[in-house]
User: What shape does this take?
Amino acid sequence: MLKTPWKQKQGTKSYAYLCARVRAMKSKLLPKEVYPRLMKMEVAEITRFIEDSEYKADVDELVQRYDGVNLIEHALNQNLALTYRKLLTISAGESHQLISEYLRWWDVWNIKTILRGKKYGATDEEILESVVSAGQFGYHDLMMIVQKDVPEITEMLSQNYPLEGYSEEELDHFENVLDKFYYEKLTEIEAVRKPKTKSHRLFSEMIRTEVDMKNLKTLFRSAKAGVERERIIDMLIPGGLKLNTISLIKLTGLPFNEFTTSLRDYPYWEEHLSSIVTEDMDSLIGVEIGLEKYWLEYAARTSHYYPLSIVPIMDYILSKRNEVDNIRMIVRGREAGLSDEVIRSRLVL
Amino acid sequence: MAIRDIKPTRSELIELKKKIKLAGSGHKLLKMKRDGLILEFFELLHRAKNVRSELDSAYVLANEKIGLAKAVEGAVAIKSIAFALKDVPHIELESKNVMGVVVPKIESSQVRKDLCERGYGIIGTSSCLDEAVEVHEALVEKIIVVAEIETAIKKLLDDIERTKRRVNALEFKVIPELTEAERFIELRLEEMERENTFRLKRIKA
Assistant: This one.
């Protein structure tokens, strides 16, 4: 049986203490002004810069295994995992439950990576290089899972994840099932489903907005690719804030231009989508980045309302992830020779 | 063929005339084949130039898209998703005959796949990945077309070279030698006839 961090009983239930720790951690995030400077640097300079920051220990630890851009990316991922695990360690009670349920996303990500690696026939080392132990599963838990074969893995995990009847031929279906399961579990939490306090209401709105963003992204991609209506409906996650299941179903199975036209009658169009969506758009990357930006800005805005609640912790979780994404965007963008304009448009500052 | 090895007889002359006629028609046919192959070659070369430039731009685009996907999703995520793609494109190799030259004909299937058949889930991935996969599928298709055309060009070039050598050998070596041998036999036969006439006159005298 895998160990779960909330059994360690090291954390505190006090939001005052937890939020003070989180505020201190947030103060160590890179300020906005740093990113334009980073964009002017070469990869080696960015590595040096990263080594002088919060990521020093991770870079030092990984420098013998990786170099260049890969070193930076692995150091960022390791630091993110350690940061999130620290949040799980210092929290207890309700805050711990909410954080761990939210960070379960990484467990789902790791399970998918392991199943993909097993299907491909990758070695245990290759699979372990691609996991990020930022959720409830620690690195040792993941190592233990990776060493098992697929039937053992699915049997062990099917207690907590919908993996009954798993077959490698249907990996994509099970990936969708796992992702949907994650959001369904998240929206079933008492604090999200029936929020009783104002801070819970804000937390609930943050989570349900994320569900809306996820559904919108799925709808955009499915409409662009012309996916069958029934398959799209299977992938939609119930429990969104402004887009309920009926609204979502109405938007499925439409040709792309009709889909974008129909969106005008729904929430998010006026406040956000109208500026980034056109009927004849070739690429959806701009829309996805736009939705991501909207969600992060929304989370950042609401985080100031209740300083001693789960909301600023959520804001920190998202800001940390955003910092890692931004640095990676700059470094990988430099490596791929993307123009400054393209990189800048993908940053969420 | 050395002149000294030739027997100056009438039957040899008849044989040589047959050979010269055969070599002449062979030369004509091979020249026609060479010209035909060259025409075919230039046609293919034109197509090859187009598909090559298409391949180059598809490669640049694929690199750009995978670079963007790595930047947005992370190389670790891309590697993880790549594990899910085990199915390789199905390629059938056949052959066709172009003026006697056997060139490959490559038929590919299962290169382009629908979003739901690519092997990875949709909810947990992004359109960056879709676009990177899409341009890479197009790149694989282009590589297959280029492989077919460039192999055909290589085979045609080899055959053009071989045919050219044969044409030249017939034109500048075989036919001139045979003609020379024919002339030698004719001269020798004339000489022998003159000798015979002279001998008969002497016997008569």
In short: Residues 1-8 of chain A have pLDDT under 50 and may be disordered. Chain A touches chain B through 61 residues (CB under 8 Å). The CA atoms of residues 276 and 287 of chain A lie 6 Å apart. The longest helix of chain A spans residues 93-120.
